[in-house]
Every structure is written in structure tokens, then in C-alpha cells.
């Protein structure tokens, strides 16, 4: 933390540089998205490809968490982790494809299994 008496431009320089270096790459993509959003179709090949890649990345992450967990999740047996996934899918389908219901059900089952196991 910088003391109040040292709040000069020279003292803030490194922090401003970090902020600039972190913010500009993120905002450039946002600005480009705003500029091109009106010209792109949601049904275009590029959007289908992006959705496919994003779905594959999330699926891979979930599979890694189920089959190769780290930390506290590794203490929960595989059968309980798989059962919580199945319960989450069942809750999702039973709630007319409400994603929040599926996530809450799976997480509740996982936490319960962690306490039991």
C-alpha cells in the first residue's frame, strides 16, 4: 500500500502501467466486438464454430473435475461425483431445461456426498 504522502505520479507510475497493460488487451476485443456485432449473423459459420469450441472447453473442464479432481473434490469418491452429475442432469430436464436448477441440484448432491464420505 502506498502511503498518502507518496501519491505522486512517479509513485503511481508502475500501478498505472500495470492497469494499462492489463486493460488495453481486454478492451480492444470488446471494442472490436461492438464495431462488428451489427454486421455478423448469429447463424454464421464463425459463430457456430465459436460456440462449438466454447462448449468443448467447458465439457473438457467438467470432465477433468469429475475424473481427475484436485483438492477437497478428490476426497469425494468417483461414484458420488458421477451420481451428482446424473442428478444435476435429471433436475435440469425435470425443470424444463432450467440450468440453475441442474447446477444447484448437482452441487447440493456433491456437497452432501462430501459430508457423508
Walkthrough of the structure:
With 117 residues, the protein is mainly alpha-helical. It has 3 domains: 8-39, no CATH class; 41-67; 70-117, no CATH class. The protein contains 4 helices and no strands. The protein has helices at residues 9-37, 45-67, 78-94, 99-116. Helix 3 packs antiparallel against helix 4. The longest helix is centred in the first third of the chain and has 29 residues, at 9-37. It is flat and about 55 Å long. It starts with 8 loop residues before the first helix and ends with a helix. The mean pLDDT is 87.
CA distance, first residue to last residue: 44 Å
Helix and strand sequence: HHHH
Q: Would you report the number of β strands?
A: 0
Any low-confidence stretches, pLDDT <50, length ≥5? none
Number of contiguous helices:
4
Gyration radius (Cα, Å) is 22 Å
Shape: flat
Strand content: under 5%
How is the biggest beta sheet arranged?
none
Secondary-structure-based class equals: mainly alpha
What's the structural domain tally? 3
Give the proportion of residues in helices: over 70%
Mean pLDDT: 87
